[in-house]
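Technical annex, item 7. During the second reporting period the consortium partners agreed on a shared format for inverse folding records so that results from different sites could be compared directly. Each record opens with the tokenized structure and is followed by the designed sequence. A conforming record, contributed by the partner at site C, is shown below for reference.
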């Protein structure tokens, strides 16, 4: 039942391919508005698997999809994805075809314990994902995420 460091449940919704870019959410509250939000970039889990509010993560994912849809290149800029990702310093860079996610784990003393799957503090990872993968993941995940927000 363990799938890339998280126990998947029948209530998990999301979109995308875990080997490229995937966003998923598993409700843990009765109303569905709180749960575990996770992003996978090239098979690497980025979130810390703690319970969080869904709404801010939907907004961050929507913004990320918007960046993927905008043509042109952008230099590395800080990427803020919310409390589930506080253990990481993340930047995002875009080329004509790709999005480059670069991240390092922050030192434990500043941000609490990172999840066991996080890279060692200070080790930088840079992962390329096709823009089309991010757009596809957002479009696949959005209807179910919005449904949870409106029907909870």
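Designed sequence (site C submission):
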């Amino acid at each position: 039942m363990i799938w890339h460091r998280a126990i998947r449940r029948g209530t998990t919704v999301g979109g995308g391919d875990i080997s490229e870019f995937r966003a998923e959410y598993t409700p843990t509250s009765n109303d569905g508005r709180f749960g575990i939000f996770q992003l996978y970039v090239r098979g690497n889990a980025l979130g810390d698997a703690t319970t969080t509010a869904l709404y801010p993560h939907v907004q961050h994912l929507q913004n990320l999809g918007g960046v993927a849809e905008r043509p042109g290149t952008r230099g590395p800029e800080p990427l803020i994805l919310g409390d589930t990702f506080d253990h990481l310093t993340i930047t995002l860079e875009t080329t004509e075809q790709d999005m480059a996610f670069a991240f390092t784990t922050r030192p434990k003393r500043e941000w609490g314990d990172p999840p066991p799957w996080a890279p060692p503090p200070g080790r930088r990872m840079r992962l390329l994902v096709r823009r089309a993968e991010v757009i596809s993941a957002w479009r696949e995940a959005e209807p179910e995420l919005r449904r949870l927000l409106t029907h909870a």
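The first helix runs from residue 54 to 69. The first strand starts at residue 2 and ends at 3. All partners now use this format for quarterly exchanges.
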